[in-house]
Amino acid sequence: MALIGVFDSGVGGLSILDEALRQLPQHDYIYLADSANAPYGERSSDWIATRSLALCTQLLNEGCDAIVVACNTATAEGIQEIRESLAIPVIGVEPGIKPASMQTQNGIVGVLATEATLKSDKFNALLATLPSNCQFIKQSGAGLVPLIEAGQADSEATLELLAKHLEAIQDAGADTLVLGCTHYPFLRRAIRKLLGESINLIDTSEAVVRQLKRQLELQDKTSRAAQSCTLTFISSKDEQSLLNMAKELMASDMTSHHIQAKSLSSIR
Length: 268
What we know:
By secondary structure, the protein is of the alpha/beta class. It folds into two domains: 3-93 and 205-263, Rossmann fold, CATH 3.40.50; 97-202, Rossmann fold (3-Layer(aba) Sandwich). Helix content is 43%, strand content 19%. It has helices at 14-23, 45-61, 72-85, 97-103, 115-119, 121-128, 144-149, 156-171, 188-195, 205-218, 239-249, and strands at 3-8, 28-33, 66-69, 90-92, 108-113, 135-140, 176-179, 200-202, 229-235, 257-263. The strands form two sheets. Strands 4-3-1-2-9-10 form a six-stranded parallel beta sheet, sandwiched between helices. Strands 6-5-7-8 form a four-stranded parallel beta sheet, sandwiched between helices. β9, α11 (239-249) and β10 form a beta-alpha-beta unit. The longest helix is centred in the N-terminal third of the chain and has 17 residues, at 45-61. The relative contact order is 0.20.
């Protein structure tokens, strides 16, 4: 059994935690949300890298055996320094543009992500490796994360803003849409309402958790727990609100875990 840390700027990484609990329910988890500073996508690269390293170090100090940086922006700006600084496996997330390029039928792919992710060297280096005959319509989802953080993923305000962001992607005739922020899987219903059922949505949660599983196997930490596991939610803003959002947004069964919520007071 392992203790796994899952870090995000807010509630977006709950989509990764949800999948981790589905695939790997036998482990203890700490979910750390820096909600007081969300969204990261509108902050400077240096700030994101420094803050992300500090919070991942906090998870290491909590005893984590592995960490998932469940934030596309934090991965893009800080994953290299985090991996160099911490002596445990660190798994990042990135927009699924590679699988999208292989799955598209008409060669037109929409990418909905934060501005910081779209401008990052990591994202653009990956983009440069993909087939030139595949057209990527890049679109910042500015304003969507705060709405999701406020529990308004299915509100009219979110639908209206999302429609504006998806307009160029829809006009281009994209048959595939990359959800390039871990918050965006919680917009699936709204996206389907706007774009219909035929567009292929790419979410990398399953692949991220498979990579986590491989890393745990290398550490020989995949055995089933003999007793109830713990699931701890830590927030830099409001831990009870985070817990309530987890119960609302996540589909996996959390009843097999002892659930607790704590505030993040040691790092400001």
